[in-house]
Amino acid sequence: MARFGTTAFLLAALMLSACDDGGPYRMGTSAQELGYRDLGQALQTELGRRGSLTLELVETDGSVDNAARLLDGDLDFALVQGGFIFDVTGLTLLAHVDTEYLHVVVPNDSGVRDLADLAGKRVAAGIAGTGSRKIAESLVRAAQFDPPAEFVAMTRSAALAGLAAGEVDVAVFVTGLRRELGPLLTDGRFRLVGVETAEALALLLYDMEVAAIPAGVYGANLALPPVPVTSLATSTNLLARHDVPDGAVRRVMQALFSHRVQRDARLPRLSEETARPGSEAYLHPAAEAYYRRNDPVTADQFEIAAFWLAAAIAILGLIRYVWQRYRRWRVPSA
Fold first, then answer.
1. CATH code for 100-234?
2. In the prediction, which pLDDT does 69 show?
């Protein structure tokens, strides 16, 4: 059964390969998120090495900007952070490529010990166009701080410098582990704040779940945090417009799960198993076919295949019968 599914997928792939010209296709990464740039560059390099598709990278303001550009048709593929609501009409999902954690960072001498202490504080959480800013705003609304937190618009690099200079009280980032925050959390001046109400907030926020930032993932000699920090997390999603040809999506999927991309994008846990969405509600058809290529054939699929096989045999039989009758008509008996 599984062999039949694999063979059918390969035959379909061969037919689809002629349906697109190999690009160029445009992919949105982010000027703020190092992980997005790493993955975009790794995909671009691997696709170029294979000679299968030309991928142009576009550094945008972030996830919100990427989603908008996909909808406008400016991008074909994009990395978009979960955790905020946007119009998915005309967009499709390809893979969950990484997990991003809510990091609440403060100086060591800060009085902020819990999320509730953000009330009235100056908070740097990115600029408009970033997923971090959207999630931070949703978080503040859900927590109902009194007085409300004051958001200060800063790029990620400026937020790190602003926190060190005392221009802001708190920096909030939603990002992968051991990325931009590594240098900030190595010199011993800052610490991470836990989210004790994470379970309650996960019920109020979209596409966020309770997670823990592992002990020792940051700091000199991997000493920070000293114990796991309760927080929230969401996924990094690779999206495509619905009208991107199946062949192009298939090639991107093949490159995405290659060892080189896993290594160069620093995504050691990336695999088909971790990337495959739990719900296939708006998967691109080619992505769904890719994930299912080794699945056992279902009874319905087998019945459909058997029907078409029987129909093909019947048509071949009819052609043979007609051909034999024609030959007898053309060659008169002696």
1. 3.40.190.10
2. 97
